[in-house]
Specification:
The protein is α/β, with parallel strands linked by helices and 114 residues long. It has one domain: Transcription Regulator spoIIAA (2-Layer Sandwich). The protein is 39% helix and 28% strand. The protein has four helices and seven strands, in the order E-E-E-H-E-E-H-E-H-E-H. The strands form two sheets. The chain has a five-stranded mixed β-sheet with strand order 1-2-4-6-7. Strands 3-5 form a two-stranded parallel ribbon. Strand 6, helix 3 and strand 7 form a beta-alpha-beta unit. The two termini are 25 Å apart.
């Protein structure tokens, strides 16, 4: 999993399978973000081809952590299969989901620009 800063944003890029192990890693990395860090957290799912209930729970936990800190967590680049799982579980109603990182930046709320 890659963890990086891009233009004052936090970007997490899980790879292959988002299961309990990868989900725990995401939660750990999100918990380590300092309170004064950027307001926008992005989970780029371009390299994820499978997600299970543990991975979904980790993302929901991350969303709660972001909101608790007054930050915005968004998801982008879902594969067709992973998007279907979000739709079946109705988590597509909970998360802000974008087709690409560029779409996030172009629609970003000006108040969040650092």
């Amino acid at each position: 999993m890659e963890f990086s800063n891009f233009n004052e944003h936090i970007i997490l890029q899980p790879h292959n399978c988002l299961d309990s192990q990868a989900g725990n890693l995401i939660q750990q990395q999100l918990a380590e973000i300092l309170p004064d860090r950027p307001q926008l957290w992005v989970i780029d799912m371009a390299h994820v081809d499978f997600i299970d209930s543990s991975g979904l729970c980790a993302l929901v936990g991350g969303l709660n952590a972001a909101r608790h800190r007054g930050c915005r967590l968004v998801i982008c680049n879902l594969s067709v299969t992973v998007r279907l799982i979000f739709e079946i579980t109705q988590l597509d109603q909970l998360f802000e989901i974008f087709d690409s990182f560029e779409q996030i930046i172009s629609t970003q709320n000006p108040a969040l620009v650092a």
